[in-house]
Amino acid sequence: MRLIKIPLLGRIVIAIVIGIIVGQFAPMWFAQLFATFNSLFSNFLSFIIPLIILGLVAPAIGEIGKGAGRLLFLTAVIAYASTLFSGFFTYFSCEAIFPYIISANVDLASAEAIDDVVITPFFTVGMPPAMDVMTALILSFCLGLGISFIKGDTMLKLFVDFRDIINKIISAVIIPLLPIYIFGMFLSISITGQAYMVVSLFLKVILVIFVLHILLLVMQYLVAGAISKRNPFKALKNMLPAYATALGTASSAATIPVTLNCTLKNNVDRSIASFVVPLCATIHLSGSTMKIVGFSMAIMMFSNMPIDFATFVGFIFMIGIAMIAAPGVPGGAIMAAVGIIQSALGFNEQMAALMITLYIAVDSFGTACNVTGDGAIAMIMDRLKQNRKN
């Protein structure tokens, strides 16, 4: 009999529930066992995150620069502008809403200190990263831009192979072990009496982000409709099959055929649609950016950390670039961004783990927002091409 494969979201939910329940009666040695695993896993994440940034961002920039046509440039600019708008729209919306639904009930930063004192791991293994996150990001920009300008393709092939290695580590090591890590984290949270407050945070924030991502899609199609002179609501309705497919697959790449078909129904020229849809499946992640910004703010408020607009300006611009490099695996976008989150916002390991958990809990909704927004960009590019002909 074939075993039923539980999707990542299902495994995450199971890990949370079991962690909370077991934490009510687990002996200390059992908690220490998972504290040891979490210590090793978090150290490995700290080691691999700069390599993830280097392996994903550098080849992504290099590949985009290779075509260097006007159409490619305009599509990339519009996609990046859409991502930035999503980030700032989320920031101001959450700044207005979250104070009414989130209270600083627990300091997650001190929660890690409690974990270190009371539930100590049996042993730890230091895994210092080869470079810090900002060094990796700047090096990625320099190498990516350099690869896009040089004539040869040896460096590009090297980094494409390196990206394949990084993607394999994410899909075969980090993602499968993530539910165990989250189980250990919620086991600790349950033992220290914080489970109810954390789960309450999850439900409130997820509902807000879901409403915001629907509003984002409406705004994207209002802009696309105004530029292309087409009915935005009819165009959005035509994209619903792509939205529904993305909910099931949680993959922009797997949804490309459906997204392309829906885009053609909006009377977009086939040559434009065939170019824009696959490209935007890689570089346009407005829904993912919304989740990252919103969840970051929620965790910071919950942890009683100050939220500074100037800090978030730089954070949103960097996240927009990181989203270009996000791999096409479940949870890939948050893995590409977690290093920037820790570096720019000062998240510790436990806060980063909560961030990953929140993100994956609504991963498919973010993907659905991403691919549906791709259709709006295709409408804009189609109009720009027509204007150029005229």
- Classify the secondary structure makeup into a structural class: mainly alpha
**Major β-sheet annotation:** none
List the domain count as a whole number.
1
Helix content: over 70%
What is the rounded distance between the termini? Answer: 62 Å
Strand content: under 5%
How many β-strands, per DSSP? 0
| Mean pLDDT metric | 80
The shape is globular
Number of distinct helices: 16
- Name the assembly state: single chain
Classified by CATH, the class is Mainly Alpha
CATH architecture annotation: Orthogonal Bundle
SSE diagram, text form:
Blueprint lengths: L7 H15 L5 H40 L2 H32 L6 H11 L14 H17 L4 H38 L3 H34 L3 H7 L1 H10 L6 H10 L4 H14 L2 H17 L6 H16 L7 H14 L3 H13 L1 H27 L1
Helix pairs in contact: 1-6, 2-5, 2-6, 2-14, 3-7, 3-11, 3-12, 3-13, 3-16, 7-8, 7-12, 7-16, 9-10, 9-16, 10-11, 10-16, 11-16, 12-13, 12-15, 12-16, 13-14, 14-15
Descriptive overview:
By secondary structure, this protein is mostly helical. The protein has a single domain, classed as Proton glutamate symport protein (Orthogonal Bundle). Helices cover 81% and strands 0% of the residues. It has helices at 8-22, 28-67, 70-101, 108-118, 133-149, 154-191, 195-228, 232-238, 240-249, 256-265, 270-283, 286-302, 309-324, 332-345, 349-361, 363-389. The radius of gyration is 21 Å and the shape is globular.
What is the structure about, briefly put?
The protein is mostly helical and 390 residues long. The chain is built from 16 helices and no strands.
Please give a handful of descriptors for the protein shown:
390 residues, mainly alpha, Proton glutamate symport protein, 16 helices, 81% helix
